[in-house]
Amino acid sequence: MKKYLNVLRKCPLFEQIEDDDLLKMLKCLGAKVEFFDKKYTIIAEGNRAKYIGIVLSGSAQIIQIDYYGNRSILGGIEKSQIFAEAFACADVESIPVTVIANEPCEIMLIDCAHILHTCSNHCFFHQQLIFNLMKDLAKKIVVFHQKIDIISKRSTREKLMTYLLMMSKKMNSNTFDIPFNRQELADYLEVERSGLSVEIGKLKKEGIIKNDKKHFTLM
After folding, report:
1. How close are the terminal C-alpha atoms of the chain, in Å?
2. DSSP state letter for 49
3. Sheet with 32-36, edge to edge strand ranges
4. What is the pTM of this model?
5. Where are the alpha helices (DSSP H) in the chain?
6. Of 63, 124, 197, 198, which sits most exposed with the smallest number of CB within 10 A?
7. Cβ proximity of 61 and 36 under 8 Å
8. Within 10 A of 163 (CB to CB), how many other CB atoms are there?
9. Which residues, listed in sequence order, are joined to residue 71 by a DSSP beta bridge?
10. Rounded distance between C-alpha atoms, residue 172 and residue 179, angstroms
11. What's 219's DSSP letter?
12. Which backbone phi and psi does 216 adopt, to 5 degrees?
């Protein structure tokens, strides 16, 4: 596990936990690492929630597919970020989303029950771990409400501009890169790709934005 320390130090789940304690903790929690190739399913919709995942390398996406086969991207997961924690903490019988590898990636899986229930060793850093988990869940709720704000807009143009303004604020710059290609952005905004391309073209022509693939500038 030592080779993953640089990544795990940046993981919000292990904030304020020293390296030596972290290594002891991972052993105590029974953490395991698995490799997933590009487009491979890490967690499948319908499975019981049990594990919390941490991206050690590569990236992943949380998606949802409706009855008609339409795909919606709920969010991206980058290196050092965690996922599935809300479902695992709630111990839901059937996960309503699917997590897929966006590229070849290594994932650390930790049984949530080992986090929520302290072990017989009474590790003093376990309370910090639980606090970090609750803090992360609170932040995810904020992000969830931001997504609702975006997709609740009536038009493709409003959805796109709301998203771009949020990204600009997050990056503290009017020039930034987004984590999605054109199709993925359409899936995230829950709009048609063709309509999205038309709106991006109009905004560029009107001098409101500049765009080159994933790179955007708000004028």
Report:
1. 46
2. P
3. 32-36, 105-111, 51-57, 82-83
4. 0.78
5. 5-8, 19-29, 85-90, 112-116, 126-151, 156-171, 182-189, 193-205
6. 124
7. no
8. 22
9. 65
10. 16
11. -
12. -125, 150
Determine contact, residues 180/73, Cβ cutoff 8 Å. yes
Q: Count the residues in the chain.
A: 219
DSSP code of residue 92:
-
Q: How far is CA 203 from CA 16, 85, 192, 193, in A?
A: 44, 38, 17, 15
Question: How many angstroms separate the CA atoms of 16 and 7, rounded?
Answer: 14
Using an 8 Å Cβ cutoff, are 200 and 210 in contact? no
What pLDDT is recorded for position 143? 84
Domains and CATH numbers, the chain: 2-140 (2.60.120.10), 153-218 (1.10.10.10)
Q: Which residues pair with 216 in a beta bridge?
A: 176, 211
pLDDT in tens, 118-142: 666 656 678 888 889 999 888 888 8
Which of 84, 116, 112, 106 is closest to 37 using CA atoms? Answer: 106
User: Which residues neighbour 76 within 8 Å (Cβ) at sequence distance 6 or greater?
Assistant: 59, 60, 61, 62, 102, 179, 180
| Cα separation, 52 vs 87, whole angstroms | 9
What the block records as the tokens of 125 is 């850093």
Q: List, run by run, the mean pLDDT of 10-residue segments along the chain (219 residues).
A: 89 90 87 95 91 95 86 91 91 90 95 79 76 89 88 94 94 93 93 95 95 93
Residue whose C-alpha is closest to residue 89's, from 129, 49, 61:
49
